[in-house]
Amino acid sequence: MANSWIYRTRGISVFLLLLCQFPLAVCDLKSEYEAKTLQLEVSQFNLPILMESSVQGSLLKTVIFGRLEHSYELVLEQLSNPAAWCRMMFLHLNTKACVHQTRQGRSTVTIYMGNKEYQPLSETKPLSLTFVAKVDTAEGQLVKLQSEQGPYRTSDYLIVVEVAPLESCCTIIKFQLSFKTNPLIQSLANLYLDVFARNKVGFTRIDTTHDGNPVYVSGMQGVLERNALRNYLAVTTFLDTLGENRERRFEMWFDATAKYDQLKELSKSDYLKYKRMEYRQQVAAQMELARP
């Protein structure tokens, strides 16, 4: 949600979904949108989005607020569907498969997390998220995916997406993700980042060098921001490619992320190659769930 979604060190994988401690109710997104309209038009992302993130003890959290160039009715239909969420989340380079299931009125979305390269599902870490959609067709929609436990002693994974109509053409969206991590895991992750990944930064500008270049947040907060944007772009790419084939969807997600130096991890040819292989195992996993 998260996407990573995934932070990986040797033997340590932390799936970066982020916790949002909000009640299951649609917030007043229209008032927030009005207050942020000017900021959205001059966003550093060259898209109508704003990002905020924080690390408070064991809690890592990010919020992306923006405008979708799609009708509210279309967004409402897709975000209420667990199958559509799997198609979105599968675009992330660290998602090796995503399957969905509804039994006795309870829907789940299971994301198989791994490295940026191809991996069989037997080598991945599955995260099963309970899916809940609350819809008020006149005012807005809230979707929540959550899990109490995650891999490597992480906990309280939560994705919360709120949307509200904006005129007839567009939709306001607030995309919130979070998780809690074990203090030991967080310390090891920060150590790895400081030693081996100092050049991997996020998007929040925290300083300026003596020659005027921006200094961006790094460490776990930088990881959090990079994967939050990957997740958000998965949602927008999915909506932009409705009616198109999955190959086109893969290409457009890669192109969207390649606009940002912070998100460059794989060549386009490698990403497409891995996704074709991963799609086959995702289909097999979904078919297995459908067996009586």
User: How are the strands of the biggest sheet laid out side by side?
Assistant: 3-4-10-9-8-7-6-5
State the CATH superfamily name: START domain
Helix vs. strand class = alpha+beta
Percentage of residues in DSSP E strands: 25-35%
Q: Name the poorly predicted regions.
A: 1-26
Question: How would a crystallographer describe the biggest sheet?
Answer: 8 strands, antiparallel
CATH class: Alpha Beta
Structure, briefly:
By secondary structure, the chain is α+β, with helices and mostly antiparallel strands. The chain contains seven helices and twelve strands.
Structure description:
The structure is a single chain. The protein has 292 residues and is of the alpha+beta class. It has one domain (6-290): 2-Layer Sandwich (Alpha-D-Glucose-1,6-Bisphosphate, Chain A, domain 4), CATH 3.30.530.20. The protein has seven helices and twelve strands. The chain has helices at residues 29-41, 72-79, 82-89, 183-196, 219-240, 246-257, 268-290; strands at 6-9, 12-15, 49-56, 59-68, 95-103, 106-113, 125-136, 140-149, 155-166, 170-180, 205-208, 214-216. The strands form three sheets. The chain has an eight-stranded antiparallel beta sheet with strand order 3-4-10-9-8-7-6-5, sandwiched between helices. Strands 1-2 form a two-stranded antiparallel sheet. Helix 5 packs antiparallel against helix 6 (246-257) and helix 6 (246-257) crosses helix 7 (268-290). The longest helix has 23 residues, at 268-290. The protein is globular and about 65 Å long. Mean pLDDT is 84; it is low at 1-26.
